[in-house]
Amino acid sequence: MNPELDLTMERIIRAPRAVVWSAWTDPSRLEKWWVPAPTLCRVDHLDVRPGGGFVTRLSDDGAEFVPHIDASFLVVDELERIVFTNAIDSTWRPTNPAPVPMTAEITLTDHPDGTDYRVLVRHGDPAARTRHEELGFLEGWGSVTKQLAAVAESQAAR
């Protein structure tokens, strides 16, 4: 991690890695946590493999869904790591995404209480990192990580 370019967060999720992984790789589960509530998410494409696409839309009213993310998965190590970027869209075209281009690395490791969930978001320059932080990185990613934990922990309790 480079503190001048990267943002990070970590949370212990009280569910097994396989359950957390499923919340990331099953479109119906991803829709439940991927955007901060009460905004709704719709998954248009989720092909969790290197080179696969990641396309979601969001809605504040449940009627009109607008583009949210159009990205490509770079690395997928089952049950351990997912890396995606929005600097390359789901059709492998270079893009200049708003609000900032980034590469996100999600890692899952075993923890005595469940899963150690870590997010590392890389930026191309300090200005992009600062912009992402000022736009609410910790609040946004923190909110969706909390929602992910709720989905995974609820499923694990069944």
Model description:
- This protein has 158 residues and is α+β, with helices and mostly antiparallel strands.
- 27% of the residues lie in helices and 36% in strands.
- The chain is built from 4 helices and 7 strands.
- It has helices at residues 17-25, 27-30, 126-134, 137-156, and strands at 6-13, 40-46, 53-59, 66-77, 81-85, 103-111, 114-122.
- It has a 7-stranded antiparallel sheet.
- The longest helix is centred in the C-terminal third of the chain and has 20 residues, at 137-156.
- 26% of the residues are buried.
Largest sheet: 7 strands, antiparallel
Global structural class: alpha+beta
State the total count of DSSP E strands: 7
User: Number of helical segments?
Assistant: 4
Regions with little confidence, pLDDT below 50 for 5+ residues: none
Question: In angstroms, what is the radius of gyration?
Answer: 15 Å
- SSE arrangement, N to C: EHHEEEEEEHH
Outline type: globular
Average pLDDT figure? 96
